[in-house]
Design brief:
This protein has 482 residues and is α/β, with parallel strands linked by helices. The protein folds into three domains: 10-162, no CATH class; 179-223, no CATH class; 239-444, Nucleotidyltransferase, domain 5. It is built from 14 helices and 14 strands. The protein has a six-stranded mixed β-sheet. A six-stranded mixed β-sheet has the order 11-10-7-8-9-12. A two-stranded antiparallel sheet has the order 13-14. A hairpin with a 2-residue loop joins strand 3 (51-59) and strand 4. Helix 11 crosses helix 13 (419-430) and helix 12 crosses helix 13 (419-430). The termini are far apart. Residues 437-482 are annotated as: Disordered. This is Terminase. InterPro entries: P-loop_NTPase.
Length: 482
């Protein structure tokens, strides 16, 4: 910060923001006071209220005015931030705050001190301001993941912020430091923790079935936070079923596509390789939009052209409900499957195996997940770009209770989360290799279990050296063959 061209004082203001004053006074303010005790300056404000701390001091370059303010935004971020003028903003536990704190806050920084204090200075010395945050490894749905962990979205944000900078202005930067988690080289703060601090957390979270929280809070790994008991908690392993690198489709093998109909339609693009090895290459789903069937079909066609140019689509398999009249379409006599297939350029069959009952559909997925490895590859391998599928498997395709008219309860997948749409498409797709009675294709590779369950004349192994069946010459006077 340069000296003021008016009075030579360097002025700086930092604003600490949390959602509530309880959070500020329980964590942020005590941490601040460890470095800047109240006695260093003038402290204004009481517990549960906004606080201002003004410190005046000098260094080798002259006098400095340092101001720290603490505020809570409550229920209305826009209203609470109106009129705020500061140099920097600090967001403790950034991942617990809505993204609006970033979009509104970026218009509140670089407004202190007033512009006249920089009058006559070069352009690159007239602008100061940054937003600083700290947070645990976030869920991949969280805005902090998109800004700091997703390199592509971070690049797009930087391009937008830097598009109209005046000549000579400093380039805007987004920097991120990923603190090593427990057990990693460079893990910090261990000297201030008891020897069993992390072990207690790990044991407690795992006993509660929350391995996702261990990864996030102990090992500082980005993960998906569970919203319930995952349907595939036992069968799915990200290490086994998600590829470390992008998958490339196999030449000469046609594509197969599973679809789920509706305004929030979904599609899953795959190949079925030798020995019924499913490779899932892409997914198409727009949870923030409500799309007509033809629009969804056009977007599916664009995806096929961009990523799978030259590959033939064998067929698509969709929800039987898609065969019902699609009143959302312009032509109400057409069906969702027909309209999407026409726009995308391939035939979509209604998946009739299991008559749309949930159990055969889940069994199709379970069979692929639990299929024995063949040449080191599982029955289901997913491209890392399929975020909705992976998120559903790991955390958001979960069980809920359903009550029928008789008051009986049963467990069913929760359809209220958007990942369920993509998982429905996957289920219709995997059923395409099942027999009409729902028998898994992997059963063909198993031993003859029917024969093992039979005995003697029923077709199984003989009970003795006899060949079985009726025998003549039985002596009724000597029943025991003495």
């Amino acid at each position: 910060m340069p000296r003021s061209t008016i009075d030579g004082v360097r002025r700086y203001k930092v604003l600490f923001i949390r959602e509530t004053y309880r959070q500020l006074w329980s964590t942020s303010i005590p941490s601040y006071l460890e470095t800047f005790p109240k006695e260093l300056g003038k402290w204004s404000g009481g517990r549960g209220d906004p606080v201002t701390h003004v410190i005046h001091f000098e260094d080798d370059h002259g006098p400095i005015e340092f101001v720290a303010e603490f505020m809570a935004f409550g229920d209305d971020i826009v209203a609470s931030m109106r009129g705020v003028q500061t140099t920097d903003i600090v967001l403790n536990e950034s991942d617990t705050m809505p993204v609006e704190i970033l979009t509104v806050g970026i218009g509140r920084i670089d407004r202190w001190p007033a512009r006249q204090h920089f009058e006559g200075l070069p352009v690159h010395l007239r602008g100061y301001g940054q937003i600083v945050g700290d947070f645990n490894a976030p869920d991949e749905d969280n805005w902090t993941f998109e800004v700091f962990h997703d390199e592509e979205k971070r690049r797009l944000l930087l391009d937008a912020l830097s598009a109209d900078l005046p000549e000579g202005a400093k380039q805007i930067e987004i920097k991120f430091y990923n603190q090593p988690g427990y057990g990693m080289d460079g893990c910090e703060n261990m000297q201030n923790l008891s020897p069993t601090y992390y072990q207690r957390q790990i044991a407690t979270q795992r006993l509660a079935g929350r391995g996702d929280m261990v990864d996030r809070l102990v090992y500082n790994k980005v993960t998906y936070l569970r919203v319930g008991d995952p349907v595939w908690k036992r069968e799915f392993s990200r290490r086994v079923h998600v590829s470390d690198t992008p998958l490339q489709p196999v030449q000469g093998v046609p594509l197969r596509i599973g679809l789920d109909q509706g305004f929030k339609g979904a599609a899953v693009i795959a190949q079925c390789l030798e020995d019924y090895r499913w490779r899932i290459y892409a997914e198409l789903h727009f949870p923030e939009e409500r799309l007509m069937a033809a629009v969804f079909g056009n977007r599916l066609a664009d995806l096929l052209d961009e990523r799978f140019n030259g590959f033939r689509v064998e067929a698509g398999w969709g929800d039987m409900a898609g065969e019902h009249g699609a009143s959302q379409a312009a032509d109400e006599n057409a069906t969702w499957n027909l309209m999407v297939g026409k726009a995308a350029g391939f035939y979509i069959r209604p998946q009739r195996i299991g008559t749309n009952r949930i159990t055969p559909r889940l069994e199709a997925v379970r069979a692929a997940l639990e299929a024995p490895l063949t040449r080191g590859e599982p029955g289901l391998l997913i491209d890392p770009s399929c975020k909705f599928l992976i998120r559903g498997f790991a955390a958001r395709y979960v069980w809920t209770e359903e009550t029928n008219k008789s008051g009986d309860k049963r467990k069913v997948p929760d359809k209220s989360f958007t990942e369920a749409n993509v998982h429905d498409g996957l289920q219709y797709l995997l059923l395409s290799e099942h027999q009409a009675d729902g028998t898994s294709p992997y059963a063909k590779k198993m031993p003859d279990t029917d024969r093992r369950g039979q005995m003697g004349h029923n077709g199984g192994p003989p009970l003795s050296g006899n060949t079985g069946g009726l025998q003549t010459g039985w002596d009724i006077t000597n029943p025991y063959g003495a």
